[in-house]
Design goal:
Elements lengths: L11 H7 L2 H7 L19 E5 L5 E4 L3 E2 L7 E2 L7 E6 L6 E6 L5 E6 L9 E4 L4 E5 L1
Antiparallel strand pairs: 1-2, 1-9, 3-4, 4-8, 5-6, 6-7, 7-8
The structure holds fe (iii) ion (FE).
């Protein structure tokens, strides 16, 4: 395991201690922050977005784009850093995106993104910490 990352909590009680209430609701309970409420929606700085649960580097600012959907949107990610799961909640069929390292819920991926991937990784701000370049 990458020694720069903190050890993962052993149980949900420890996750609750480590995360804020909103982080816990999103990362551990598949919550969604309100549209246009997140701190990274309009961010254009150069840097790296890391998992707010475990610090894994997830999204490069170079892949961030203005989708207008109200959540930070990226068109690419290193597939080793995430896992995709089918999500049929809320009467929809969506593809959930979770952190491969800690299992934290990040958001969803849709097929309406820009070239070259055509993907839109629609990610909750609260699930991401930003590290400036
Ligand atoms: Fe994580």
């Amino acid at each position: 395991m990458d020694s720069s990352r903190p050890d993962l909590p052993d149980d949900e009680a420890e996750w609750r201690e480590r995360l804020s209430e909103e982080e816990y609701r999103v990362l551990r309970e598949q919550g969604t922050e309100p549209r246009f409420s997140g701190e990274h929606v309009d961010r254009t700085d150069d840097g790296t977005y890391v998992c707010a649960g475990c610090g894994t580097e997830l999204f490069d600012s170079e892949t961030k784009y203005e989708s207008g959907c109200g959540w930070p949107s990226f068109y690419d990610v290193d597939d080793d850093r995430i896992e995709k799961r089918t999500d049929t909640s809320l009467g929809m069929q969506r593809t959930e995106v979770v952190c491969a390292n800690c299992g934290g819920h990040l958001g969803h991926v849709f097929e309406d993104g820009p070239e070259p991937t055509g993907k839109r990784y629609c990610i909750n701000s609260v699930a991401l910490d930003f590290e400036e370049e």
